[in-house]
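Materials and Methods. Structural model of CASP C-terminal domain-containing protein. The 334-residue sequence of CASP C-terminal domain-containing protein from Rhododendron williamsianum was retrieved and submitted for structure prediction as follows.
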Amino acid sequence: MHCLVALLIKQTQGLSDQLEPEQISNYSTRNLREQKFKAVGYNTIEAEDWEVATSGEEMSKLESLLLDKNRKMEHEVTQLKVKLSEKTSLLEAAEAKISELTANVNEQQRLIQKLEDDILKGYNSKDRRAILFDDWDVSESVATEPSDLVMRLLSFIIFMEQNPDQRHVSSDQDQSSMLKVICNQRDRFRVRLRETEEEIRHLKEKIGLLTGELERTKADNVKLYGKIRYVQDYNQEKVVSRGSKKYAEDVESGFSSDVESKYKKIYEDDINPFAAFSKKERDQRYKELGLRDKITLSSGRFVLGNKMSALSYLSNGPEESLLGDKTLNLPHAQ
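The predicted structure was written out as tokens:
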């Protein structure tokens, strides 16, 4: 028995002696690879160089690869610095160009203002204004519509080209300067006209949206009126069944108002098929009328709809009603 135990202990020691060098070797290999991973980081070195470095057991190859990586990064940094300096120089040139253009714009605006003042001073006499600025006046340009201003400017330029004798006696430079000022003002009014048209378009879209929302709100109010009317009828029947008729009348009269009467009419027209049919027929007949008949009908409705006009018409009998520059004979009141 002791011999068997000694034999097992001896075999165990032999196996441990065999495994210990392998464990040490594996540990050293793993430690070396871990150090390489920590040194390289996210591995920007080429794959082939990395395989060569990991296949050997010396750190000299890894150090050379790290040095190569460092040199490449320094080269990239140098290139980026050169590009940054080029971009900086381009930015400075652009800023200088902007400053130059801004100065030119300011100078042009100053010259335009000076020319406009000179034109106003030169054409300040009543005779010249009566001849040249009868249809176009600079002082009234703010209060005039942009489209009218554009038309007046164009007519003024055509008048100047067709009537050279009526021009102001000055040098060719003054005439060209005046024409430039007029053209610049025409361009400004064109820009204002486009802005106004765009604003009108936005307002029309907004009006359309608001109109649709108003129609939807009106339909919702009619539906709510129908529900309120149903509740009122239910409460009235409930109160009348208890024998308090006077209280039911008070409840019904307490909800009466102008708003209720308005939606009551709309509600009854919606649920009344005869009213809808009658309105459709009236609209169809009105569309079939001629222009004179439409004018006569509209005038009669206006006169009879106005209280003072109706009383005057009924008191004076048949008379002639003037609408603008036209005379319209209205029929007798039956």
